[in-house]
Amino acid sequence: MSEILSQAEIDALLAALTQEEKKDSKEPLASIFHNEQDSLLHGSNKKTTVKVYDFRRPSKFSKEQLHTIQAIHENFCRLAGTYLSAYLRIATQLTVVSVEQITYEEVINSLQNPSIVSVLSSKPLNGNVLLDINPAIGFVMLDRLLGGPGESVEKARNLTDIEQVVLQKLITSLLGYYSEAWSNVFKIDFTLESQESNPQFVQIVSPSEMVVLIGIEARIGQQTGMLSICIPYLTLEPIIGRLNAHIWYGTSRKETDVEYLQKLKNKLQKINVNISVRLGEGTISIKELLEVEVGDIIKLDTKSDELVRLYIGQTPKFLGLPGTIGSRLGVRIVRVIEEGEDSL
């Protein structure tokens, strides 16, 4: 018997297959109509629900997982806000304003160019996290760190080498608090890997991959701006099961107000502050100022035996007597300046 089918035999098989498919397809369709008719006649409350599925933007994170991620970042905002207030010496508040899952391409297209984009490693997880600091608030931080009042720039620009080093030090400190915020769910060591000014050059995952984007509003003094944290699903996939309310609230520390204040006090005690002594003040005319030469003596309004003011930052806090300690100048504290007191 020949193993090769003739054309007539092939046509016969195809015809039989087509008839069988038509026969099978009629049964489910008839069954569907029969069930619908039966439910209408007997008053069944059963409803057929249809859920839209977007193949271009598939949902990777559940609502509970997004709520847990929001709780983690609200904790981070509390820790980082306290640190920045002391470090920048100005009132700073961080607030989570949005948590959404979108594609990485949408994230990159939404970021300003130039911007301050940092790529973070997340050991022991495999994958990176993206931190974007909008220039509107990034330059406010830099201005404070470099001794300014905390003003932003009119037009966004790339960071200078010095500005980049200064800001990297600040970001490294913030990442310590970010790791602490995640510790209730999983211990992750976030470290700064690289920095870019053009978001288009940062490709931590493919453009179509789903990520969770956390929007944080930063208010420093009177200035406001946005911080954005982008975490790919692929990075969180190994611990996605731990992103639930039970683990978050079950492992979070139940700190009392006294414990929290003590913890805050310990952190504040490690921060360095600038102190200065103002020996005195005086006035001279413009003519005298123009004639000042090396060796001239300018008379101040402070007497030689009078107390001088010692400043913490820009605030007068103590009165003291100037003197020397070995080969260095010093001041002996005499009393504290009370709030609202005209010290001298």
From TrEMBL:
GO cellular component terms listed in the entry, alphabetical order: bacterial-type flagellum basal body; plasma membrane
Record-annotated Flagellar motor switch protein FliN-like C-terminal domain positions: 267-337
Membrane topology designation: Peripheral membrane protein
Alphabetically ordered keywords of this record: Bacterial flagellum, Cell membrane, Cell projection, Chemotaxis, Cilium, Flagellar rotation, Flagellum, Membrane
Keyword Membrane found: yes
Listed GO biological process terms: bacterial-type flagellum-dependent swarming motility; positive chemotaxis
Compartment(s): Bacterial flagellum basal body; Cell membrane
InterPro entries (UniProt xref): CheC-like_sf, Flag_FliM, FliN-like_C, SpoA-like_sf
Keyword Nucleus belongs to the record: no
GO function term, MF aspect, one: cytoskeletal motor activity
The family this protein is said to belong to: Belongs to the FliM family.
Family annotation (NCBIfam families): fliM_switch
Identification of the protein by name: Flagellar motor switch protein FliM
